[in-house]
Write a sequence for this structure.
């Protein structure tokens, strides 16, 4: 019973939906494109090799390419691929996925070099990037299907960078342009500031002049009204006007007790102190 189970387990094998397989008999390929399901093989004489049938990713190392303008770029790309013909795939790579990656990477780099070499920097960065990838995928499939038995589903560029020495030059040029733009903006700002400051000074001068004019006019009107008031009071009673002015003079002269003043008692200053009628 045990022998039967061992023979059955070594004679039967299963191919999953996500797998492709080939059958070898004493190392010679005898069957390819085996359908998914349960299958039979001759124990010890036959061997089954299984491969991944789903889409695989080739993430190659960044490579250097030149544009039509002879500008060097560092391009980081990846590819999506799957086995299209397991017979051709096995014969070309021996079923070794690493070998398939190496050979596909070489063809992808050649395709990128051709596509970049026929376009300008602007076209590969933004203008025709999608078109470039489409052409590259189509061109790859015309060769790798027959030579490697695989299908390239898509090729995409992850990043496009300038070489370090070129990046430094671009950085310096961008810095110089920004500094020039900053100087121009500062110059325009200083010019606007001078205009605003000059206009403010002009308005201030006008306001001060107008205020001084109005103040002088008001002061003149006040002085005129005071003079008219004094004149009217003098005309009504000259003696009383003189008496009031003398009292104001006494008040101001004797306001500070520490002051000393030498005046002739017979002078007009004391005329109302000696007599109420000022005689």
């Amino acid at each position: 019973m045990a022998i039967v189970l061992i023979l059955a387990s070594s004679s039967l094998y299963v191919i999953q939906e996500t797998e492709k397989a080939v059958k070898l008999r004493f190392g010679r390929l005898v069957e390819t494109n085996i359908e998914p399901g349960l299958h039979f093989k001759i124990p010890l004489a036959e061997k089954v090799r299984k491969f991944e049938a789903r889409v695989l990713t080739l993430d190659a190392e960044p490579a250097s390419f030149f544009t039509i303008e002879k500008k060097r770029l560092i391009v980081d790309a990846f590819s999506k691929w799957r086995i299209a013909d397991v017979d051709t795939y096995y014969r070309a790579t021996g079923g070794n996925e690493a070998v398939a990656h190496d050979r596909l990477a070489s063809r992808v780099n050649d395709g990128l070099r051709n596509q970049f070499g026929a376009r300008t920097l602007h076209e590969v960065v933004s203008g025709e990037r999608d078109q470039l990838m489409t052409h590259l995928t189509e061109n790859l499939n015309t060769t790798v299907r027959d030579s490697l038995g695989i299908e390239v589903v898509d090729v995409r560029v992850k990043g496009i960078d300038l070489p370090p020495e070129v990046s430094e030059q671009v950085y310096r040029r961008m810095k110089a342009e920004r500094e020039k733009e900053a100087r121009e903006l500062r110059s325009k700002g200083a010019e606007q500031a001078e205009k605003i400051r000059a206009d403010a000074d002009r308005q201030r001068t006008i306001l001060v002049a107008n205020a001084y004019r109005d103040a002088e006019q008001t002061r003149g009107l006040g002085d005129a009204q005071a003079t008219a008031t004094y004149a009217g009071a003098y005309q009504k009673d000259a003696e009383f006007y003189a008496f009031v002015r003398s009292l104001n003079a006494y008040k101001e002269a004797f306001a500070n007790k520490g002051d000393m003043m030498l005046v002739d008692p017979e002078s007009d200053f004391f005329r109302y102190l000696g007599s109420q009628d000022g005689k």
Remarks:
- The CA atoms of residues 111 and 139 lie 8 Å apart.
- The mean pLDDT is 81.
